[in-house]
């Protein structure tokens, strides 16, 4: 008998809001917490989906729209003006007696550091795909970046012309290298008198229902008709066979009836979660967020299949971990609190607001914490719903919140003792999820309009660097310019806009590539200060391409810009003199070296990829003057850097991934190789060579059952006009960064707007003589 139940979503939202009020966030069990991120290619619908999550969970009373610039998570003026996510936003969503801490991350490659630091504190992620575009270049990149956390996939924009659920699923398997678990599949309503069909809902594979979204925020839950029953049965067969490879419970349940439709939903859900947590396979759902279709099942999947903090393993160095029902215990001390500061923003009223993820114990407002061995007093603690704060008295393990304090920065490990005791020496050295900052590769000059404006500009830049460590600026004493460096053209453009909002008055120079200098062969120098009785012998040589090739019996210190230092003396050599700590000595040496390697001999650029070794240091027994040692190091390096022939210039090289239609591939390759000095690494298409692992997933994709789609024949989607939506080919190339400036308009012109690209930093490489002459001319103009 056919039954239909109409559910009013306003009532559903009321239920979830009531649950949120009844269960305060600070008493929700850690097993009911989900720390997740939303990751995807730009314009896949991340922010639109997040806005619907907020609305249907009762957090907001209206749905924000990206095009109208009134979204909750994209609250920066630059985000609302451009319609893109620039800064990751943290929001809290109540759903089904769970608390979802969700971070909406940028999709644009220039803001990849926002994704990197967000992933450090996440236990799981939702990957959103555009069902028309399929798996795009940035999707592959963020999928690799999030390789250590379980994920679910939401195939969005199923209402769009050219939407291809089946083809997208095949690309998920073959390009992302994962098996898939179909949680629901699309339902299309036939349009009378037309060959077309309209996306209206989903077939729920687990609970065997049809969910249809209608007007006035309503869902109709219907029994399956015969055709729908057949589709769901085949989906269940595929699902159970995949789960059976990792979970015998599902197979045992199937053999009880030998009917795929009679395997209980609760057994399937437990098995899906097990498969997801072990990253054996990935649950896949579909919908159309803009049309408000499919978001509630996605929220259900987040709470059902993604891990709680108890089911994830944090990366905590220098200590041991033990898991209890209340969270992780660190260093066998159940009174120890450990958290990671992963993001800093500036609030005009509160000052610096530091986002933290608590891994053990709890943070208490108005208490003392330890950061880098220093004790710091903190004030209020907050939970953020985008830019709207909620004050709390404490943050327990598993939660994400905010510390209001001016003394923290991104990447700091926050430690505390619940009973306000001092930390032991071994506890102070604990490091939680260290965050690596990628090197900035683009630069612009910032010139204050007047001498009086300089202070305001420098204060603004310093504030921005606290918020975004992937920005960097240096004061060029020779030219008087401030050089601001970032991850890309858009990154710098947004930074300039942000600086203007801080009331700084300045002019901007053109975008430049961040070149460096490096040493070609090993050089030695020995210098002394006779009056002080100290001498030093140091060497400089190219650093090995892999840090693993460095001698293992030495201690190395990071000087930045891929420069390293080691000292041949053991710590006890200095401490035996009973003058100052070994740390003071090392800090003095590092200070002298960093200040001396900012200008190479070729064209006065900072050094990169060098290894500086302190071969010998000779000092009198009564020596206790680190400043003299710094002076001597600088004298030695000035002498070493006089040999210009031993140095060369390096330029940043990029890994470039370009998606182009097959008919344009020759023109794009010609442009890359002839005009941009690029080297083609490979061209990937359906007939291209694949690694052994990816061959396996290509075979899995071919055997995966997927429902037939409207207007699709032989794997090719047809639009209303009868033209084909053909899959793009992917060009992988290595190209100098300089040649990629302004590349997108050129690519769009070659491919008639259909091409797209993604690039990431590969490393610094020495330039040829011809390239050096061009770079010198370029910098002279700059």
TrEMBL record:
<dbReference type="InterPro" id="IPR000640">
    <property type="entry name" value="EFG_V-like"/>
</dbReference>
<dbReference type="Pfam" id="PF00009">
    <property type="entry name" value="GTP_EFTU"/>
</dbReference>
<keyword id="KW-0496">Mitochondrion</keyword>
<dbReference type="InterPro" id="IPR053905">
    <property type="entry name" value="EF-G-like_DII"/>
</dbReference>
<dbReference type="InterPro" id="IPR041095">
    <property type="entry name" value="EFG_II"/>
</dbReference>
<dbReference type="InterPro" id="IPR027417">
    <property type="entry name" value="P-loop_NTPase"/>
</dbReference>
<dbReference type="InterPro" id="IPR035649">
    <property type="entry name" value="EFG_V"/>
</dbReference>
<dbReference type="Pfam" id="PF14492">
    <property type="entry name" value="EFG_III"/>
</dbReference>
<keyword id="KW-0342">GTP-binding</keyword>
<feature type="binding site">
    <location>
        <begin position="104"/>
        <end position="108"/>
    </location>
    <ligand>
        <name>GTP</name>
    </ligand>
</feature>
<protein>
    <recommendedName>
        <fullName>Ribosome-releasing factor 2, mitochondrial</fullName>
    </recommendedName>
</protein>
<dbReference type="GO" id="GO:0032543">
    <property type="term" value="P:mitochondrial translation"/>
</dbReference>
<dbReference type="GO" id="GO:0032790">
    <property type="term" value="P:ribosome disassembly"/>
</dbReference>
<dbReference type="InterPro" id="IPR009000">
    <property type="entry name" value="Transl_B-barrel_sf"/>
</dbReference>
<feature type="binding site">
    <location>
        <begin position="40"/>
        <end position="47"/>
    </location>
    <ligand>
        <name>GTP</name>
    </ligand>
</feature>
<dbReference type="GO" id="GO:0003924">
    <property type="term" value="F:GTPase activity"/>
</dbReference>
<feature type="domain" description="Tr-type G">
    <location>
        <begin position="31"/>
        <end position="310"/>
    </location>
</feature>
<dbReference type="InterPro" id="IPR000795">
    <property type="entry name" value="T_Tr_GTP-bd_dom"/>
</dbReference>
<dbReference type="Pfam" id="PF22042">
    <property type="entry name" value="EF-G_D2"/>
</dbReference>
<dbReference type="GO" id="GO:0005759">
    <property type="term" value="C:mitochondrial matrix"/>
</dbReference>
<dbReference type="InterPro" id="IPR030851">
    <property type="entry name" value="EFG2"/>
</dbReference>
<dbReference type="InterPro" id="IPR031157">
    <property type="entry name" value="G_TR_CS"/>
</dbReference>
<dbReference type="InterPro" id="IPR035647">
    <property type="entry name" value="EFG_III/V"/>
</dbReference>
<dbReference type="InterPro" id="IPR005225">
    <property type="entry name" value="Small_GTP-bd"/>
</dbReference>
<comment type="similarity">
    <text>Belongs to the TRAFAC class translation factor GTPase superfamily. Classic translation factor GTPase family. EF-G/EF-2 subfamily.</text>
</comment>
<keyword id="KW-0547">Nucleotide-binding</keyword>
<keyword id="KW-0648">Protein biosynthesis</keyword>
<comment type="function">
    <text>Mitochondrial GTPase that mediates the disassembly of ribosomes from messenger RNA at the termination of mitochondrial protein biosynthesis. Not involved in the GTP-dependent ribosomal translocation step during translation elongation.</text>
</comment>
<dbReference type="InterPro" id="IPR009022">
    <property type="entry name" value="EFG_III"/>
</dbReference>
<dbReference type="Pfam" id="PF00679">
    <property type="entry name" value="EFG_C"/>
</dbReference>
<feature type="binding site">
    <location>
        <begin position="156"/>
        <end position="159"/>
    </location>
    <ligand>
        <name>GTP</name>
    </ligand>
</feature>
<dbReference type="GO" id="GO:0005525">
    <property type="term" value="F:GTP binding"/>
</dbReference>
């Amino acid at each position: 008998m056919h039954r239909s139940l109409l559910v009013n979503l306003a009532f559903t939202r009321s239920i979830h809001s009531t649950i949120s009020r009844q269960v305060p966030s600070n008493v929700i069990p850690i097993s009911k917490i989900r720390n997740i991120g939303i990751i995807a290619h730009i314009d896949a619908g991340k922010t639109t989906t997040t806005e619907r999550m907020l609305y249907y969970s009762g957090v907001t009373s209206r749905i924000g729209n990206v095009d109208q610039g009134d979204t909750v998570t994209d609250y920066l003026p630059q985000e609302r003006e451009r319609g893109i996510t620039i800064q990751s936003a943290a929001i809290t969503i109540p759903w089904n007696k769970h608390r979802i801490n969700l971070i909406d991350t940028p999709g644009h490659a220039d803001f990849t550091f926002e994704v990197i630091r967000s992933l450090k504190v996440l236990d799981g992620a939702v990957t959103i795909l555009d069902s028309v575009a399929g798996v795009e270049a940035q999707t592959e990149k963020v999928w690799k970046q999030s390789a250590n956390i379980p994920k679910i996939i939401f195939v969005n924009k199923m209402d769009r012309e050219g939407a291809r659920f089946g083809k997208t699923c095949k690309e998920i398997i073959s390009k992302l290298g994962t098996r898939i678990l179909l949680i629901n599949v699309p339902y299309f309503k036939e349009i009378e008198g037309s060959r077309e069909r309209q996306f209206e809902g989903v077939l729920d594979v687990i609970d065997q229902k049809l969910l249809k979204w209608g007007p006035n925020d309503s869902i109709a839950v219907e029994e399956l008709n015969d055709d729908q029953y057949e589709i769901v049965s085949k989906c269940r067969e595929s699902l159970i066979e995949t789960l059976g490879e990792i979970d015998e419970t599902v197979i045992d349940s199937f053999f009880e009836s030998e009917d795929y439709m009679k395997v209980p939903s609760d057994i399937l859900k437990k098995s899906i979660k097990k498969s997801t947590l072990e990253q054996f396979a990935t649950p896949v759902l579909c919908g159309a967020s803009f049309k408000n279709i499919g978001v509630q099942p996605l929220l259900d999947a987040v709470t059902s299949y993604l891990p709680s903090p108890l089911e994830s393993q944090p990366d905590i160095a220098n200590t041991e971990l033990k898991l209890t029902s209340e969270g992780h215990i660190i260093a066998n001390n159940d009174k120890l609190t450990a958290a990671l500061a992963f993001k800093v923003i500036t609030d005009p009223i509160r000052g610096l607001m530091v986002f933290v993820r608590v891994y053990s114990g709890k943070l208490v407002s108005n208490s003392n914490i330890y950061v880098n061995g220093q004790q710091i007093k903190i004030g209020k603690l907050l939970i953020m719903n985008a830019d709207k704060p909620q004050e709390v008295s404490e943050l327990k393990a598993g939660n994400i919140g905010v510390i209001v304090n001016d003394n923290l920065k991104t990447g700091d490990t926050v430690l505390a003792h619940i009973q306000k005791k001092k930390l032991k020496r071994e506890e102070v050295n604990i490091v939680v999820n260290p965050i690596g900052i990628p090197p900035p590769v683009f630069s612009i000059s910032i010139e204050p309009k007047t001498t009086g404006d300089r202070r305001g500009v420098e204060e603004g830049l310093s504030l921005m660097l606290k918020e975004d460590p992937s920005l960097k600026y240096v004061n060029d004493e020779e030219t008087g310019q401030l050089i601001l460096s970032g991850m890309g053209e858009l990154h710098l453009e947004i930074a300039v806009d942000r600086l203007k909002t801080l009331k700084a008055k300045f002019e901007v120079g053109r975008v430049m590539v961040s070149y460096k200098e490096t040493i070609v062969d090993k050089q030695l120098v020995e210098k002394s200060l006779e009056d002080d009785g100290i001498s030093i012998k140091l060497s400089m040589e190219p650093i090995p391409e892999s840090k693993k090739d460095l001698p293992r019996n030495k201690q190395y210190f990071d000087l930045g810009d891929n420069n390293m230092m080691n000292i041949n003396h053991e710590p006890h050599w200095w401490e035996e003199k009973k003058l100052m700590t070994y740390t003071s000595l090392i800090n003095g040496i590092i200070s002298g070296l960093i200040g001396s390697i900012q200008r190479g001999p070729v064209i006065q650029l900072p050094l990169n990829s060098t290894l500086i070794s302190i071969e010998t240091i000779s000092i009198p027994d009564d020596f206790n003057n680190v400043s003299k040692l710094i002076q001597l190091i600088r004298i030695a390096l000035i002498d070493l850097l006089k040999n210009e022939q031993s140095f060369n210039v390096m330029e940043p090289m990029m890994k470039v991934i370009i998606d182009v239609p097959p008919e344009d591939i020759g023109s794009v390759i010609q442009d890359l190789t002839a005009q941009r000095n690029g080297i083609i690494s490979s061209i990937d298409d359906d007939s291209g060579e694949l690694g052994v692992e990816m061959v396996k997933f290509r075979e899995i994709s071919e055997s995966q059952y997927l429902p037939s789609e409207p207007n699709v024949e032989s794997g090719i989607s047809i639009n209303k006009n009868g033209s084909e939506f053909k899959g793009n080919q992917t060009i992988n190339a290595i190209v100098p960064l300089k040649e990629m400036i302004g590349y997108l308009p050129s690519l769009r012109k070659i491919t008639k707007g259909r091409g797209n690209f993604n690039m990431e930093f590969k490393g610094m490489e020495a330039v040829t003589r011809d390239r050096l002459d061009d770079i010198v001319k370029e910098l002279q103009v700059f």
